[in-house]
Amino acid sequence: MLHFLNLIRYKNLMIIAGTQLLFKFFLIDTFFKETALSDGQFILLIIATLCIAAAGYIINDIQDVEIDKINKPEQLIINQHISEKRANNFYLIFNFIGVLLGFYISNIIGKTGFAVVFVLISGLLYLYATSLKQYLIISNIVVAILVSISILIIGLFDVLPIMTTTNEFLVKYHFKILLIYTGFAFYTNLLREVIKDIQDIDGDYTNKMKTLPIVLGKQRTIKLISVLSLFIAVAVFYYMYSYLSDYQVIVFYMLGLIIAPVIYFSFLAWEAEKKKDFSKLSILLKLIMILGVLSIIPIHFYALKGF
Question: Nearest Cα to 28, choosing from 143, 159, 147, 133?
């Protein structure tokens, strides 16, 4: 059972589900008495998202067997603990459930065309695992989009369908907030994917992959990541200064739990050389992303006071 849970990256799935529930409770339900989906239907949306994501993790592991034998042999699951045939069956089942639920939810909100979102995500995950990995930086961008879209999808299915001429401003305003958080998640995940490429450089090189560390070299790439990570701090500071500067708790949260860790990350990245350094950076960047998403909680409580 544990091997199956590791195959579908249950920890990542928990983060995705938690993130969607977080924005549902602390943002959407705060400002909208009624939304397109009932609580039960929203849970189905989460399940659909998790099924598509799980399928993506499975097909990625199936395609990466040879690479993982070099990069992380101790974590190899396919053909060690779960056969490739069984893994393929799991992949098909999860995809089927995810897409089917997508069609069902789209029909509920009267937007049948929205179901294409789940089909596209499923297709992109397959293309990423089977072919897009070979293209420089494109694979990193695709993964970052697919991870961050789990935030945007709740606005697409739960908020946009209820937009009328009366509430248009409110709907667009909160959809914009979701877009901002989606952008934050996209950028942090993009940097993290490049760091993971540095960690996997040996296996990728053996299998003739074109990743940024292979093209530029490890040290040039990590120096680039160090500089690019500072844009997160600049963007968060600008957002905080422009919209939240009157609210001390939020300011302290963003300065202490987002901006400061980003600066620390940038410093560590500049000095990183060993594999354990890159592993630490990947974990730190994931923590920064989670802390960034969690900032919606203090914003929620100020919103209740008329913020």
Answer: 159
HSE-CB at 69 with a 13 A cutoff on CA atoms is: 9
H helical segments located in 109-217: 116-130, 138-158, 168-199, 201-206, 212-216
| Per-residue model confidence as pLDDT tens digits over 277-294 | 888 999 999 999 999 999
Which DSSP state fits 65? Answer: H
CB 141 within 8 A of CB 190: yes
Contact 262, 227 (CB under 8 A): no
**Residue 287 host element (H or E):** helix 275-294
End-to-end Cα distance, the chain? 46
- What's the token pair of residue 217? 């070299």
132, 137, 143, 144 alpha-carbon torsion, rounded to 10°: -160
Instruction: Say which residues have a Cβ less than 8 Å from residue 195's Cβ, sequence separation at least 6.
Output: 222, 225, 278, 281, 282, 285
Taking the C-alpha atoms of residue 198 and residue 76, their distance in angstroms, rounded to an integer, is: 19
- Which range among 114-118, 141-145, 273-277 has the greatest average pLDDT? 114-118
pTM given for the model:
0.89
E-state strands within the chain: none
- Alpha-carbon distance of 236 to 288, in angstroms, equals 12
Distance CA 279, CA 61 (A): 19
Give the phi and the psi of residue 306 in degrees, each rounded to 5: 100, 10
Q: Confirm if 112 and 106 have CB atoms less than 8 A apart.
A: yes
Q: What amino acid is encoded at 290 in this protein? A: I
- Mean pLDDT value of segment 82-90: 88
